[in-house]
Specification:
Number of helices: 1
Strand content: 5-15%
Radius of gyration: 12 Å
Number of domains: 1
Low-confidence stretches: 50-55
Mean pLDDT: 85
Largest sheet: 2 strands, antiparallel
Strand order of the largest sheet: 1-2
Helix content: 10-25%
Number of strands: 2
Shape: globular
């Protein structure tokens, strides 16, 4: 599902440079530099600190 949203977002924003994909923040997904590599971008669903929330 997120891939479809990303493709639509890319078309809407006329993305031609892969670096601009890091700006994608839709449907609760965000770019996660802590899990991404130079050639592989990882997007996680949820808030920035969701994995470190204390209960």
């Amino acid at each position: 599902m997120a891939r479809g949203f990303m493709v639509s977002w890319m078309a809407e924003h006329e993305i031609e440079d892969a670096e601009r994909l890091k700006d994608f923040c839709e449907c609760g997904y965000r770019y996660a530099p802590e899990y991404s590599g130079e050639r592989e971008f990882v997007f996680l669903k949820g808030g920035r600190n969701e994995s470190t929330k204390e209960t």
